[in-house]
Amino acid sequence: MAIDVDADGEDRGGPSTGGAGEEREQGLEGERLSTIYAPSTAHGRAAVAILRVSGPGVGNVFRHITGAPLPRPRMATVHGIRNPDNGNRLDTALFLFFPAPASFTGEDLLEIQHHGGLGVCRAIDDILARSGFCRLADPGEFTRRAFLNGKMDLTQAEAVADLAEAATVAQVEQSSSQLAGSLSGRFQAWRLELIRILSIVEAEIDFGSDDDLPDQLWRTILPDLERLRDQLCDLLADDHSGERLRRGIVIAVAGRTNVGKSTLVNLLARREVAITSAIPGTTRDVLEVALDIRGIPVTLLDTAGLRETADPVEAEGVRRAVERAAGADLRMLVDDDPHFLEQIGEKSIPVLSKCDAGAPAFFSGLAISCRSGYGIEELLERLFRECRDLVPKSGVAVLSRTRHRQCVQETLDCIDRALDRANGPLDIFAEEVRCAGRSMGRLTGHVHTEDVLDAIFWSFCIGK
Q1: Mean pLDDT over all residues of the chain?
Q2: What are 250's strand-pairing partners?
Q3: Average pLDDT over residues 360-373
Q4: What percent of the chain has pLDDT over 90?
Q5: Where are the alpha helices (DSSP H) in 389-458?
Q6: In terms of domains, do 255 and 226 share one?
Q7: Which of 6, 32, 108, 298 is the most exposed, fewest CB within 10 Å of its CB?
């Protein structure tokens, strides 16, 4: 039985932005020649599990477990999976074969959709591991091969990992936009512009005495370099909003002892994550709770109550509370004394707790009751507005990783040095422009080292 699959869906890694380029290394020979396999779905009991095999030995693997030749490309075909040792049938599965280069990895790729019981998964994994035709993939190796084969650049490869880890709608939208090329298209255009500028400068160096070359042609590119510099500055002036969205907004819940901080955290988390007690100093360490506030990821920190104490353990908890609150993106200062909260500055969100009968008339801030639910919706609305201002606007391409920011900053530094040396020796000016191009190339992966790739792809889960 076969079902035709739309060929447009075969390359699931996002659009390529210009291919690998002549500077991109192709990895170790053994990496390119080996055949790898790994589950694409999470471990555990399920109706269906998906396993992928990629590399030149895909045909041998398929024949080993089915006894049949490879199916037609991009045709969903049902076959039995047998145990090669005794011929016993283990499962019936759906197979999809994507020949190179029209696959996610750019290699021959086989996708196996089999039943998701733990016993079935273990049996198929055991057969593949003992087959001699393939090996278990390293973390991120499928995406790494897609990168090395020019199916995506490095920023898109990172987006694959971010998309797999995304926990909220806003994170999904940012990762999907990056995978579709929102960053890589811009970076590639800037890299090509630097190459164009460098070619004009080098022409001046090599052929400056040629009568056919306009006098000081290279100076015509200075406005272009200044314009590129301004664009890089604009990209860096985003208050780290993309990185913040990727990791989540950190909100510290701080305040004195026994004012209801842990009770509020439990209410917002909708589960008992913190111990609550009438005894002061119950919370000693910082507790972290993940929340989704209208699609924005938030990490809520329940901190120790602030007070002077002779208990060394509680004192350490207070020290950590102050430290984590200082480093948080937002701070909620909770207290049951409205006069105390009236003195709080603008950097914290004052929250008056234990307002079972409502807030005092003179208090203009947020007032809540964890017992009755009074004011909780207003608090969530305020938190959403504050968080929304800290993340990128929907559809705006921003830097999402520290690595991106470092490469852009290095590029900007090189351009600044080039502009400062515009009236000096031309070969030094050219070297700074060349340096800028290399920094931009490292960003997209057109210039890379194995150490950089290892650091990026080993953070992936196995199967990606």
Answers
A1: 84
A2: 299
A3: 84
A4: 56
A5: 402-420, 426-444, 450-457
A6: no
A7: 6
Query: Residue holding tokens 């090996």?
Result: 135
Q: Which one-letter amino acid corresponds to residue 396?
A: V
Tens of pLDDT, residues 412-445: 999 999 999 888 888 999 999 999 999 999 999 8
Cα 333 off chain centre by: 31
Residue 173 pLDDT > 60? yes
pLDDT for 345 equals 60
Q: Classify the C-alpha dihedral 243-245-246-251 as positive or negative.
A: positive
- Its pTM stands at 0.79
Tell me if 177 sits within 8 A of 300, measured CB to CB.
Answer: no
User: Which runs of consecutive H residues, i.e. helices, occur in 328-422?
Assistant: 338-341, 376-388, 402-420
Q: Assign residue 51 the CATH number of its domain.
A: 3.30.1360.120
* Distance, first Cα to last Cα, the chain: 29
Tokens of 342: 């009236």
Same domain as 140, residue 171: no
Tell me the C-alpha distance between 418 and 438, whole Å: 14
Mean pLDDT on 33-46:
91
Tell me: do 20 and 122 sit in the same domain.
yes
Q: Rg for the chain (alpha carbons), in Å?
A: 29
Strands 330-335 and 249-255: parallel
Phi and psi at 198, nearest 5°, equal: -65, -35
